[in-house]
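Structure request: MAPEG family protein, Sulfitobacter undariae.
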Amino acid sequence: MTIAEVFLWPGTKVCERLGVNPEGEAGLIRWMVNTLVYLVLSLAIMWVIMA
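Returned structure:
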């Protein structure tokens, strides 16, 4: 497993659960899920650091 696959894992799993190909046109769904996951993680980390 490459580092890119590790970072894309959340979106890939959501696409698989929805029954769509994450490598095809549904790549935007994978991108959106990954963006939301890493946004929430980043905000949580910043909240802990700033508190």
